[in-house]
Amino acid sequence: MAAGDFLSGVDLISPAEFAKEKVLAIQVYALLVGRSIANLFKHPVYWGDMLQQADLIGVGSLPIVVLTGFSIGGSLALNSANTLQRFGSLSLIGQLVAVGMVTELGPVITGLMVSGRNASGMASELGSMVVTEQIDAMRALGTDPTKKLVTPRVVSTVFMLFFLTIISDACGLAGGGAVSSLMFGMDWHQYWSSAWQALVFRDVFTGLLKPLLFGFIIATIGCYYGTSARGGTQGVGRATTQAVVASSILIIVVDFFVTRLTMTLFGYH
Amino acid sequence: MAAPPTPLEMPAPSVAGSAEPVIVFEEVSIGFEDKPVLDAISFRLTRGETKAIFGVAGSGKSTILKLALGLMKPDSGRIYVLGEEVTQMSEEALFDLRRRVGIVFQESALFDSLRVRENVAFRLLEEGNISEDEIERRVREALSFVELERTVNMFPSELSGGMRRRVAIARAIVTQPEILLYDSPTGGLDPVTSTTIIALVVKQRDVYKTSSLLVTHRLQDAFVMATHYFDRETNQMRALGSRAHGEVPMTFLILRNGKVIFDGDIDALKLSKDEYIREYIS
Fold this sequence. Notes:
The structure holds 2 protein chains of 2 kinds. Chain A has helices at 3-7, 15-38, 47-86, 93-131, 134-140, 145-184, 188-198, 201-227, 232-265. Chain A is mainly alpha-helical. In chain A, helix 3 (47-86) runs parallel beside helix 6, helix 4 (93-131) crosses helix 7 (188-198) and helix 6 (145-184) crosses helix 7 (188-198). Chain A starts with a helix and ends with a helix. Chain B is built from 9 helices and 12 strands. Chain B is an alpha/beta fold. The interface between A and B is medium-sized, with 14 and 23 residues.
């Protein structure tokens, strides 16, 4: 098989073109982000749409957040207990679950769950509106789609993910508590008091800063891929997949940097 | 040919048929992926006039409408709409101008998550300062114009293609715009439904004197529009005598290879010696 045959049907793109495309994509994303924030200070503000999105994103995601939070907390307790038992330190299980859930697992798992559910939803909804000219129709009717569609989604996701993460943390702690008391015979009150005492300001601050950033990432990435969708239903499908992949990766990468930043900020090394 | 009843509450614009231009294209060019689509085209639409735009698929007919609304920016040239140069306006400023222009998209582009009522009322609801009773009255009026009052609580997915197109017309006219842009309003519809849509376009032209650009590839639709008028007394579209064809404000614009090869009325079109045009209209 000649090299030409092997490459037939493959669209090759020059590195310069590729770089140009990526820079343009970042520029478009930055503009979308800037406008979605600026719209908060411009009339009209779509409070009704924000409330509707908050219901869809927040209330709609509640069951999966409760379930995953409880399961992760339980798994964390189960895994930690085995190790702690070897050192006779089973009483520390509450501390471990509390710090792990509040600083890392609660925000990240909730972010990934909401990303899978809502970044895809936003990308497919807005993408369908683009390919059926509904976005153009909205512009033609004198309404800014960024103001009407993007800003409410960004505000609602940031707001709701914050509270969903708190719920997930609480469920995780409950899951850890259930495993500790039911499977390892630990006193319920001892578990809770050790978990409670382990949390310091830095842990809570880190754990509550992350969902604000993750919510912003989920909504802006979902809306960016949705509004950039091209190529009919296939393009909408592609945008949906890309939105979930990009927002999930960004959540994990940003999580690392935020953790490092808060450690530096609070003098941890 | 029956047409829907006229809502008498809607006033006709005071200026009609004057030579004042409402849309002006000056040497406008645009291309996609290095392929020129419109090549320095110029034309003007005067107040009260309806101009039908023809051309083969991909000749840039729909692009003209999107350029006129500022939904796309040309590579070069200038476009004036209602006296304002849209090519120089920011998106923010364009929103105000677009409130004076209505558009009917090729596939209707109704918001599928909203009911017919909210679709038609969309622009009125966005204004924010119109009472609910007034919105309801104007929605009913616009829907009665297209004879679809009964669909007010339905979703677009529950409507047929022709009904969706009529709802799109109702949405476009609900604010009584000064200009209407129709993007293939009869495309993909059966002949009976197409005639109903054309009757609505003629009614809008003759009763409300709205200036319009109509993109179509169905020459017969434009010929019907050029040879018929809307009779308010009988509420029907009626044929004009052959000598009176020039009396309706209807012109034709034909595109070929990105250029305007014809811009004139039906009589000039019939007399054209251009081989392509002769073949096109035969």
